[in-house]
Amino acid sequence: MQHRITVLGAGFAGTWAAGTLARRLHRDDVAITVVNAEADFVERFRLHQVAAGTDLRRRDLAAVFTRTGVRFRHAAVTAVDAAARTATLDDGAVLEHDTLLYALGSTVADHGIPGVREHAFHVAGRPAALRLRERLDRAHGAVLVVGGNLTGIEAVTEIAESHPGLRVALATTGELGGWLGPKARGHLLRAFDRLGIAVHEDTEITEVTAAGALAADGRAFDAATVVWAAGFAAHPIAAASGLDVNGAGQILVDRQMRSVSHPGVYAAGDAAFTLAEDGEPLPMSCASAGFTAMQATSAIMGDLTGAGIGRTSLAYYGNHISLGRKDAVFQALHLGSRTTSWSVRGRVAAGLKDLILKTAVHGVVHPTYGLPVRKRRIARERREAVAAANAAY
User: Fold this and answer.
1) Which stretches make up the FAD/NAD(P)-binding domain (predicted)?
2) Which of 156, 192, 349, 354 could tie 344 with a disulfide, CB 3.0–4.6 Å?
């Protein structure tokens, strides 16, 4: 009987992991199923570009997994029962698994602010980015982006560059780019001046309305369009599954990306809470998705085959921030949280980021690319050990 591996989510973490498992594990021993709400692979890091009017190349996931032996299910996950080892889909199907890789990513965090869900737009998913795109195409007046993190900065600069007729502003609770080194921050501020973006620092938005937003200090911001970019949160499915999670709904995992509460469950990407090499939480990001997927995949293969488990460095090396299509900054960090003095700015940084993103996407959507890989077999005793561990919970 084949060992059933289910991968929930086909973003960077899930798609790469599924393809790698298919290449490295013998097809006679495993049945790999990937479930994703979108039929296409979504380049999430470019969704601010989609919102501003860019059409991205379509990458059909069923085609991505052709010839890999991976079964693709186009459906949304509505529930996970960690104890019963099942995942329920919106088409009514219930998938049973022996090993689960949870990689459903994250969604926009509204922080309980009134009016965000009713009136604000965001770019945390492709459907949301397309709704914002439609809004911007017919919008007049002011656009307010809330959030001074990477997503907020990339969204506001892209909107300002692509829609020069709109009055664009950004509100942030702190200092814009305050975590950047002096040279990178100076370049960031000059880009905002060049694009005519008004900046409201030390501004806490406490309500979003149909006419704009209200701040804690009593100021009212008139805006026909409010874009909410004040952070991300894990999908609530994990918290309702019985898995141990943190306050943000991320699955608590060990260094190998195994759930600390349920054997046979692994997590990767934004859905997993783990620490970077400097001891600080690894941030939700595309880079983190890659590192955690590599570690989770290595652990799954090692646990099933009895082979050694490689140690992937869980480091966050820098912030690469687009400032429109032909401008960017890359701020190097020391392992995850401490800013260094080194940065790259301008067209060079923009070109470097584009190259990195294209290379990352190519590797993810071509799981059969490269030389053949020797496929590992699952030993009978390992299969029995996994079954026994699963049965214990």
Assistant:
1) 4-285
2) 349
3-state secondary structure 19-63: HHHHHHECCCCEEEEEEECCCECCCHHHHHHHHHCCCCCCCEHHH
Q: Which of 124, 390, 92 is nearest to 231 (CA)?
A: 124
Sign of CA dihedral 259, 263, 269, 271: negative
Domain 116-228 is found in CATH 1.10.8.60: no
Q: Is the separation of the CB atoms in 123 and 148 below 8 Å?
A: no
> Architecture of 3-108+232-315+372-391 per CATH?
3-Layer(bba) Sandwich (3.50)
- Tell me how many degrees the CA angle 72-286-79 measures, rounded to the nearest 5: 45
pTM for this predicted structure: 0.92
pLDDT tens-digit map of 38-96: 999 999 999 999 999 999 999 999 999 998 999 999 999 999 999 999 999 999 999 99
Classify 136 in phi/psi space as left (phi over 0), alpha (psi -120 to 50) or beta.
alpha
| Structural tokens at position 311 | 């140690």
Neighbours of 77 (CB within 10 A): 22
**In this structure, what token pair is assigned to residue 193?**
């001046």
- pLDDT for residue 373 is more than 80: no
Give mean pLDDT, residues 314-342.
Answer: 85
